[in-house]
Every structure is written in C-alpha cells, then in structure tokens.
Design brief:
The chain is α+β, with helices and mostly antiparallel strands. Helices cover 14% and strands 33% of the residues. Strands 7-6-5-4-3-2-1-8 form an eight-stranded parallel beta sheet. It has a six-stranded antiparallel beta sheet with strand order 9-10-11-16-13-14, with helices on one face. Strands 26, 28, 31, 33, 36 and 38 form a six-stranded antiparallel beta sheet that branches. Helix 5 packs across helix 6, helix 8 runs parallel beside helix 9 and helix 8 runs parallel beside helix 10. The protein is globular and about 80 Å long. It starts with 60 loop residues before the first strand and ends with a strand. The N terminus is likely disordered.
Length: 680
Amino acid sequence: MRHPHPHTRTARRTVVGALTAGLLCTTGLAVPAVAAPAPAASAQDSVTPTRADGLALTPPMGFNNWNSTNCRAEFDESMVKGIADLFVTKGLKDAGYQYVNLDDCWALPARDANGRLVADPVRFPGGIGAVADYVHSKGLKLGIYTSAGTKTCNNAGFPGALGHEYSDARQFADWGVDYLKYDNCNNQGVDARLRYTTMRDALKATGRPIVYSICEWGQNKPWEWAADTGHLWRTTDDISDNWGSMLSILKQNLPLAPYAGPGHWNDPDMLEVGNGGMTDTEYRTHFSMWSVMAAPLLIGSDLRKASEATLDILGNREVIAVDQDPLGRQGAVVSSEDGRWVVAKEMKDGSRAVALFNETGSPQRIATTARAVGLPGAAAYTLRDLWQHRSYNTAGTISATVPAHGTVLVRVQPDRGWAANPPAVELGLDGGLLMEAGKPATLTTTVTDLGRTPATRVSVSLTGPAGWTVRPESAVRAPAVPTGKALITRWTVTAPAGTSTAPYDLTLRTSHRSPGGVRVDSALTFAAGVVVRPPAGTSYLSDLPWLSAANGYGPVERDTSNGESAAGDGHPITLGGVVYAKGLGVHADSAVEFYTGASCRTVTVDAGVDDEKDGRGTVAFEIWADGRKAAATGVLTNAMGARPLSADVSGAQVVRLVVTDGGDGIDSDHADWADARLVC
C-alpha cells in the first residue's frame, strides 16, 4: 500500500499478529562462512552536485508529530511546546535531537484575503511565530510542513504551496522556521523536479537557513537528481508501525548508499520506535538500521507517553554516534544470505560500525570478519557492543547468534590497546526451539572464544520456566577455551505434559575470566515454542495456529482479505470473481509459518491478488519447507485471477508461506492464499 490515491494521505496505525519462536535479546558468537568484501569507499561518493550551504552535514535529528497524533485535536501549541520541554528534561537535546517538526493540519483550510497562510487559531492561538520563539528558547529548532501541490495530503484540504512558493517561504522564514517538509499530494501533474527546485529557490531567497526535506515518496528517484535541491529526500512510501512495513522500507533504502552524504541524505521516513506495533527487539533493529544507513532520526512516537524502554532506545548515544558520524557514509550491504544481513558503515576514525541483522523469525548465527567489512589486517581488534556498552577483543571474527528480527550492532577497529579488553565470547545454540509438550527435546549450546586471548574458568547454565526439566548431558565447565574453540554442551529439555501452545523463555548464561582475571558474565534468552502436531488428514491452514506472522500492512487475516489496518477489517476473499470461504489474507511483504513436525505431505492453494484492488497490485507467492523453496508462482498481477499452487512439504518441520512485492513496491499488494489446505 502507498497513498490510497495521489491526492490523499491516510494515517496508518497497524499491528502485526505474531507468535515467533525466536530469541528475545542479543548475544552469541559463531564462525559461519566468511562474507564478501565490503564495497570500496569510493562507491559512497555523491553522484550529483550538492548544496554548499553548510546545512544538514549530519542527518537531521528531531521529532515529527504525524505518526503519533495525525490530525487529531491533541496536535496543538501546548503539545508542541511540551515536546520541546521533554527534549530538554529527558536528555534528548543533549543526545543530538534538535528539530521539533509540525506536520499537516497546522493551518486553516483557506488562505487570507492577501493569499497568506493562516495558522489554526484553535490549535495555535499564539501563531507559529510564537511557537518558534518558544522552541528556540530551549535551544532547539522548529520545522513545518506543506505540500508541493494545490492542497496538502489531508482530506480537509489545507492549502499547498504550488504557485505560492515564494510567499509561503517568506512566511516560514518570518516565523522563524528552520526546517521544511515538502510533501507531494495534489501536485496537478506538474514535473517533480520543477516543483521541488522552485521551492528550493524560494527558500534560498528568504536568506534564512532552512533545512529542506523533499517528500515525494521516491516516485521520481530523487536520489538521482535532488542532491543539489534538497538536504534529504524520501526514498519510499510512508512507514507504518509494523515489522513488514519497516522491513520493506529498509530493503528499498539499503541499495541507495552511494547517493547519501553530508548535506544530502536518503530518508526512509520517520521512526516508529515506541508506537506499540513492534516489539522492543524490533524497535532496536529499526533504530540500529536507520543509524547504520545514516538516515534522519525523527522520533514519531508521543514522547509524553514514552516508556523507559522507548527512551533507552531513542537515547542510545553510541548508536546515535553511528548515525551522526561526520564522514557521512551510508552503510553498505556486505552479505544478506537467507535473511542474515551484514551491513557495514565506514566511520571517520577508520573504524567500522557493523550491523548483524536477522530478518527471519528464528535465531540465526550471522558472521563476518574484520577484513570483509573493510578493516586492515591486525593482530587483534577492539569490538564494542553498542547495545551492551561493553568492549571486547577479537582475533578478527565478528559474529553473533542474533534473535528473531533482532540486530547486534558493534563498532570494530584495530587498536593497540586491544589486550586490555576481555575476549569476545559467543553464545550459540542449535536445535530444540520447537518442542511438543511432554516429549524431551535436545538442545546444543556453544560458548566460543572469538578473542585473541583465551577465556578461562568458563561455565554455562540453562534455565527454563517453573516445572520444566532442563538437564545437561555433557560438560558445563572448562578450565580454558582457546581462540576459535568452544565449550559444547548438550541438554535435554522437557515441557510438562499439558503445557499450552506458546513461546516460553529459556535463558543460557555463561561466565568466564579474561587472562587478567576479569570476570565477564553473558546471557542469551531465547523462546522455545511449544507446538502441537497438525491432525492427520486434510486441514485448512486458516484453522491452524501459526508459529509467526509478519505482514506489510495490518495483521494476517483468517478467511478474509487483508484490510490494511485493524484485525477483522477485510472482506470475503475474491479472486477472478470467485469468492472463497476459507484462506489467509495478507499484504506484501508477508511471511506466515506453520509447524508441521515432519508429518505432513502437501500444501495446496489458489493464490492471487484480491479483486478488491480493482486491477492494481503485483505479488509473488512462495511455499518453503524448512530451508527449501518447495513451490513458487512467479509474479502475479490482479488481472490474472487465481493461480493453483501445490508444494511437496514431506519431512519439513516448518512450512512458511511467503509473499513478496513482485519487484515494484507494495502498493495495493493484497495477496490471498485462497482455499489453503495442508495434508498430513
């Protein structure tokens, strides 16, 4: 989905239903295959001239109200001033956040008799200038919004700036505005470059330094032409507060690294951290990946209601330092095999920020090396974990067991003082993440020394919920673990008979000593899913519990299409005029996993784009049996109706139904797994 049609913008508050058998916090370290070398630094050089006004030399940081308040009455002068106060009292100003930005709905629907914009006197009784004065008094800056069209994106029809660029820019400057977000609605088909360069020139003519944010949703590839026009440009459609939306935008923005740099940034849209549609693990990924991509960091949650967990994420200064590094490189993809991503960002001091990002719904070992991310050879390196705020030494391996939808973010550099840090130790696991109640499951854990120095007096323990049996079957202690070696422990884990189907936390803890005697404690918490084997015979997948569900917009729906927002807002599944009583309604990008326990044979479906999209939408369907792609449709359009699809899933523990966007973005991608059946 993108703007429902070119002249409207809707609020998108969606929640993805998910039951994911995966890790819940980060740690771990292993040695999978070495990734390919990172691109040369020259690949990051700007390909177009850039503005030389000294603005936005690092990605802008601040707040925008739209994702939290939309156009509701609570968006007013008091709220905006309160956000400025919170920037100061919560330490966000000191962390680098400086822009307090107003989005749509600040103005009256009509201009005055002289064609000037008028602030809504109910929302802003003191006017925009008074708000700017207050924000400036806090040492902060004020941003404002309009559209490069006749009206803004809201259905109320607030005035846009098309044809009024110079007078509107003059008003903004007179009010003391420091930042302009310039949207794309109601543009009357006027050439985008003309519209956006006209406002650039109008802002410049005011003589006031105003950061210029181009928000044309990436429709005209602004990264190819806007570096001398704006200071940042949206690369995608609007973000929504769910995993599928964030992931889709991340994947669209990552390849654009060569176009970003000081004064000209790729903008994958505002932060959703704290809005409630994702887990804290997913929000840490969101914040980590936006920072590695040198993206603007504009808080989109209501700071008046922010939890300590939200503020901890938004205020992590070590992660913010990655985003704000003055070299201005956007991180480049080193590898991305099977949803295990390594993204490396060159830093001005010569270090590399490295994100180990797990796209999948289960814990994964993700690994690379110092050389692969562009660092020179060295006897050892200092590795700083930016979420744990701990430093280690590594012989060159950079790896971790990363939770489902999680990211481990580290900063690595050659360092003569590496020996002062304890060796990096990885906690890993294999097997046992899915188990049936009352039946013993086997789990193997590893404690691997990645450092140049040995880990000594190593011990490990594993604990589960009350009533569970957790028993080691091999050694849980080692006097020393040399570089590259591991303490490997086998465990038998049994959930009591009658345990309800759900994920349950198991925690792996380890302790070791550095050669200098410093004790280091680590923990890895992961979810073991208690599952039920599907019944023998033929079942509709919409009648079975899923292990996990990720969706581009709204939740995955049972027996209806996807309505993009709240659960139950879909319609009867309809493909090519045929109405189906059973099936799953999803929105690309989507993945739904089912436990089959090696007891099932076949999945059959009628796959297609729901008729409700009136000829729009292109998707591709895939059925995966564990790590094997068992069947795929190729790209389908709305006009194709239903495409029968059958997959042999014999022997698979987990079946995953995947829908991708067909290669053209997720606009209108309402995908139906109609009449989906599982034979066991």
